[in-house]
Design brief:
The structure is a homotrimer of 312-residue chains. Chain A has 13 helices and eleven strands. Chain A is of the alpha/beta class. The first copy, chain A, is globular and about 55 Å long. In chain A, 56% of the residues are buried. Chains in contact: A-B, A-C, B-C. Chains A and B meet through helix 2 and helix 13 of A and strand 2, strand 4 and helix 4 of B. Chains A, B, C: Its EC number is 2.1.3.11.
Chain lengths: 312, 312, 312
């Protein structure tokens, strides 16, 4: 593994999940592995869980951490090839990525989708720019099209619930006032392809995810029907993919309720809008796994950093 | 002590002050106490002294520190119960507090009074929100109504001057162009209730502090008279409490001068407006304790963190 | 050396360069030197290389690091003597510098030229304010008129190329859409005075640097002629000094090209505007030393910190 850019970089999901669960039992076992090594976190967007859990994971491994917010602390980057840089952008990602590589052993990057230009978002110019030019491993802390640290944490959370039978897992769209990216949903779907489970995606018409990601998977437009007899319901909003980045509607009927949840466990990556995405009763109830998902972000990051450190 | 939210959480002020003074003599004696433990500092407002001294205190104890500015780095929090979160706020403090608790062993929070809505400020929604939902101890780095790390540092500073007699200590209002919170004054008053001293509060009419905090204490509206024969004069601006958050006037006669100071020592929590709050001659003179007060912020934080670490 | 404020604080450039090159071969040799010591980085302006490389240097020496952005995290500082601080500035540098000195062992400061008021910029109020009032050593991370950590890194880079003969080194102006400070050019010139080299400065008329800095040096207004047979060409934009802070023109003929570079090595401090300052072919070519210059920023900072730590 050169980098951790997407779920596709996981060579053995069950093995990684087991390793993460072991790290969780004794987080500082490998405190010497990262000694003298430095992780640099570069944020082009806001973050709470990712910011803190990735730092914590690095500290557990004995690494030093340097955190930088590119927006207000660094320079505006240019990504184009051959550009005459006489406008607002001060530095090319070619230099930025090579330079950062001089000061750290692993670089982790968060850069959300802009949701205005599908081709540009799918080109992943920030993440791929760094992955192309950095001379150290690059970790995706949520990019335009994927959030593989979250999906790996979700896999750990699912595994900890050790369902006794092959579980039914539903990914359900829910309403939200703002246009949100597809990254979390995309990586969850990719991770689900590596799980032995009955997997159903449900959303209103018009909210289909990128068809190349959902190809061959079950899509059920009736949310209630999709949720019947589910063991886990993962709720998440995303904006339209076909009418790219648009909020087509915020139909409140799609909010997750106790009734729809039934006997299933509730999952969400957070932050979550209460009583818009999910009713208070669900989020505050015993079936909610959201805090454990957040907790597992540390061990998801830690297993990734550990694997990258082991091969250097 | 579950949390350090206010002066009321100090069970034995003289004991804490003595412990802080011992830590000051050898700050790294307890370097092992915090090994493998992480402090998370969450700032909802600007900070210089608190930001650096609290970090330094944690490093002295061997802790790791993660610093986060909620404003521009995290998500806008919601505090209400049962709110339909379809407006600007992205995450509820219920989740934020539980999530942060997954990544650290102690969380410290700065969230100033907004000075627009007295009831809201007195509800301390940020500090109390975290204290209610966090599963780790919470430390107040200045909230709407209190700044107990400052008042503890002030107690250390007073003690270091070891007055030979029961001292006369004055808390004097001074003018300021902007509306400032009451937190520093409130906590100083609460701390003074635990001191064996003659304590006088002086301010112009209309600038009375919350009467439930000053109940039974001496208020003298004539500043010169209040300052006569004082051993320590603590100067601080605050906005009106009765006409909540308003600057009623900026009467320059209330600026602290050499003449009014007399033989007393000058105290202020900083930052301070020169020649508005206090004359240059006082601040630059031998009677000023402000830098020592700032220095003691480290040991005030360190004694609090030490006590919280010892009971985990 | 009390502080590292300018190239003039280097007592023996060849000795420092050799020491830096040794640190580069084994960066953690002196890991114990900084144990229990804290470096505080104060940024009044953006930074990528300086932010990360100075942290890395400190970590290599075993120091703890606290990073603070004064702009959005702290208070707006006042620098004037005797000012009545009833306007926007909340804290005087006198207090800020003394206070920060309570929490760290070395303080490093970045504060760019405003380019509006020459006298104010040349007074270096931020850097000199801290140097005057701090009780710990102060390091210049680029001030109004100098960037001595960069120039020291440049000296290391030049030395690593070990030219077999006395080299010809050219400092060439290049166009840029925005008004940039003179700090990098100034410190490079000052450092060149300590080198055994043929040194030529080239720029269009009107872009003369501060004559007190270039006094006695060769200035050639014909860029092509200046670059003939050069071994190293250091390219950098700066705004006019005589018509202070103005962009007189952005003549694209002054961009560095393969043709003008000839057999010379290309140097630039970064960030650099591609195809404005320098053609892609030069920057991406084998003659470019820019990434190695960035790498040497770590060891330039490390040798400075090491010397400051050794004398405390």
């Amino acid at each position: 593994m050169k980098n951790y850019l997407s779920i596709k970089d996981i060579d053995n999901l069950p093995g990684w999940v087991e390793e993460a669960k072991k790290l969780k039992q004794n987080p500082v076992t490998h405190k010497n592995l990262g000694a003298g090594k430095t992780l640099c976190l570069l944020f082009f967007n806001n973050s709470l869980r990712t910011r803190l859990s990735t730092q914590k994971a690095a500290l557990n491994l004995g690494m030093e951490v340097m955190v930088m917010n590119f927006g207000n602390e660094g320079w505006i980057l240019e990504y184009g090839d051959g550009t005459v840089m006489d406008q607002g952008n001060s530095e090319h990602v070619k230099e930025a990525a090579q330079v950062v590589s001089q000061y750290c052993d692993i670089v982790a990057i968060r850069a959300f989708a802009g949701l205005k230009d599908k081709a540009k978002d799918e080109a992943e110019e920030v993440l791929n720019g760094f992955a192309t030019y950095a001379s150290v491993p690059v970790v995706n802390m949520e990019s335009s099209v994927g959030h593989p640290l979250q999906a790996l944490a979700d896999a750990i959370t699912l595994s900890e619930q050790h369902p006794t039978k092959r579980p039914k897992i539903v990914l359900s769209w829910a309403p939200h006032p703002k246009a949100l990216p597809h990254a979390v949903a995309n990586s969850f779907v990719e991770m689900m392809r590596l799980q032995d489970a009955e997997f159903v995606i449900t959303h209103p018409k018009g909210y289909e995810l990128n068809p190349s990601i959902t190809e061959g998977l079950t899509i059920e437009y009736d949310q209630k029907k999709a949720c019947e007899n589910a063991d886990f319901i993962y709720v998440k909003n995303w904006s339209s993919y076909s009418d790219y980045g648009k909020v087509l509607h915020q139909n409140p009927d799609w909010m997750m309720t106790q009734e729809k949840l039934g006997g299933a466990k509730f999952m969400h990556c957070l932050p979550v809008r209460r009583n818009v995405i999910v009713a208070d009763a669900v989020l505050d109830g015993a079936k909610s796994l959201v805090i454990e998902q957040a907790n597992n972000r540390t061990f998801s990051a830690q297993v990734v950093l550990k694997k990258l450190l082991e091969q250097t």
